[in-house]
Amino acid sequence: MERFCRDLISKTPAYTSRGTAIKSTRRGTSLGIIRYADDFVLIHPQLNTILLLEKELDKFLSPIGLQLSKRKTQITHSLNLPQKEYGPHPTFSNNPGFNFLGFNFRQYPTVHRSMKDTRGKKLGFRLLILPTKANQLKHQAKLHKIILIILIILIILIILIILTNS
């Protein structure tokens, strides 16, 4: 699948934000693919390329009996919401960032502790990877149970100490 995506991107014309064409040998390097079992994330700076990949991956997966899950597939920006110029799309998410393997990945605008590009220039955002809200709530519930058990044990110990002293 990775090879298919990179080959598809290298054949598709792409341009920088200044409008200059990107060489076909460099286009595949701009694609980030994160995969774990049957879940994957595609990261690319251009929305048109992501939309093309979504359409072509459906065609690529159908001969082997697989398809992209409409419920789990979402297109989102990690810092800003999708641009309105592309119009409504069924997989656009209303929230920036994405959840993957129990973690939320999102970029936040910042001034002081900004990430830097390869040349050392500040980019104006910082990437935060945090547990999802659901996982945070599960963890808090476990901690709550542990604290309650410790409190009960302490109360029992105090009662035993009082009874033995009297």
What do you see in this structure?
The protein is α+β, with helices and mostly antiparallel strands. About 35% of the residues lie in helices and about 15% in strands. Strand 3 (about 100) and strand 4 (about 105-110) form a beta hairpin. Helix 1 (about 1-10) crosses helix 3. The N and C termini lie far apart (about 75 Å). The mean pLDDT is about 80.
Largest sheet: 3 strands, antiparallel
Q: Helical residue percent?
A: 25-40%
How many strand elements?
5
In the predicted model, the low-confidence regions spanning at least 5 consecutive residues are: none
Q: Helical stretch count?
A: 4
Task: Compute the separation of the termini in Å.
Answer: 75 Å
Cα-atom radius of gyration = 24 Å
**How much of the sequence is in beta strands?**
15-25%
Structural class assignment: alpha+beta
Query: How does the overall form come out from the CA principal axes?
Result: elongated
Global mean pLDDT: 81
SSE series? HHEEHEEEH
The strand line-up of the biggest sheet is: 3-4-5
